[in-house]
Amino acid sequence: MIELSDVHVTFNPGTPLETKALRGVNLNVPEGQFLTVIGSNGAGKSTCLNLIAGLCRPASGTVAVAGDDISDWPIYRRSKFLSRVFQDPKMGTCEDLTILENFALAQGRTRPRGFRMAVTRTIKDEAAERLKVLGLGLENRLHDKVGLLSGGQRQAVSLLMATTGDTKVLLLDEHTAALDPKTAGFVLELTQSIVAELKLTVVMVTHSMAQALHVGDRTVMFHRGRIVTDIDGPKRAAMHVNDLLALFKQEQHEELSDDALLLG
Ligand SMILES: Nc1ncnc2c1ncn2[C@@H]1O[C@H](COP(=O)(O)OP(=O)(O)OP(=O)(O)O)[C@@H](O)[C@H]1O
């Protein structure tokens, strides 16, 4: 479904600030797979998501989705099948618009020439139906401004909005990191149930090694712009957080500082 072939991304090339953020990344994420991505600070995780989302372009190599080389596609063209949820709950929603208006906006996401924000009865019914599943009573607050919601409520709404329409690929950029543990657990469970229901292909960046191992089907670890570990199946199922940490140290021949990765 998602295929990165020998991708290199370099920021500020040819200047003293040159940074090789991705250095020959090969990654094939099959349709329906839930991939978790972990790595130390500056390893290239966000750059990888940016590359798939179209926020940066490869210096060389290709990015393909469903067999199409999308390396040069503009963001709006990708948004027809791809969406993203960020760490900051404020990033996924417009606080000055109501919950319903935000849903209408999400529906318009797939249209290339600007968005239409017409709130039709269908959108209202769909929004209410999907919000009801959250069990937060938000289906009765369709006309409340999103700015009134808590961070967790807002992130749950962001997730619903990101998975409206024809979304096939979901990119999660540490989307539970800014939430308290209980709310993070709720949003993560919601994520897993939506992904299973809609059979989405997912790339989730996390700093939590436990989350990386226990959520999804496969885990890759980035270090200095390269994928250094790629585990799935029984090997991954039998692995504990400490094993993953040991594997990282073995791959890198170096010690990790405690703040580079969260062990919990
Ligand atoms: N827009 C940019 N301009 C210049 N350098 C950048 C830019 N974006 C990222 N970088 C650099 O590229 C490297 C990879 O950054 P990236 O954000 O992908 O890492 P990360 O693994 O997501 O790290 P973190 O966990 O700290 O968010 C880093 O050295 C970073 O400073």
Automatic annotation (TrEMBL):
Keyword Ribonucleoprotein among UniProt keywords: no
Recorded coiled-coil stretches: none
Keyword set, alphabetical order: ATP-binding, Cell membrane, Membrane, Nucleotide-binding, Transport
Name of a matching Pfam family: ABC_tran
Topology versus the membrane: Peripheral membrane protein
Positions of the ABC transporter domain: 2-249
Cellular localization per UniProt: Cell membrane
SUPFAM superfamilies per record: P-loop containing nucleoside triphosphate hydrolases (SSF52540)
GO MF annotation: an example: ATP binding
Family (UniProt): Belongs to the ABC transporter superfamily.
Protein name (Swiss-Prot/TrEMBL): ABC transporter ATP-binding protein
Organism, as annotated: Hoeflea algicola
